[in-house]
Amino acid sequence: MNIPSNPNTKINNDGDSFPPLFLYPNVVGCFLYVQILNYPYISYVVNTIAQFLASLQYQHYQALVQIFYYLTSILYLALCFNSTAKTILLERYGDAYYARNFTNQKSYTSMLLLLNLL
């Protein structure tokens, strides 16, 4: 699984209802926690499925399963740095515009990582 969600799939309230799953809100909450700590690039799809906690449908469950498969497929991926530098300084800067686009109320975020070998 290369991406956490299919970009051509629209998740909405149209479709067949799904039997209520008591663990669905817990799993979505865990994904929200994971996105904040480790994987900020899955934020869009996790926040999208979090909007439909009250009216669970089959497409929401499919999106949840796809996120789970994606996270398990990248579990052992890591960045490895092999350097002779005495000090490695990793700096992270983030920026966010919350609902700055007044036509559709979209939020934008960005992140910059700098690696300095001293």
From TrEMBL:
The chain crosses the membrane at residues 21-41, 61-82. The keyword Transmembrane helix applies. It comes from the Eukaryota. Keywords: Membrane, Transmembrane, Transmembrane helix. This is Uncharacterized protein. It comes from Physcomitrium patens.
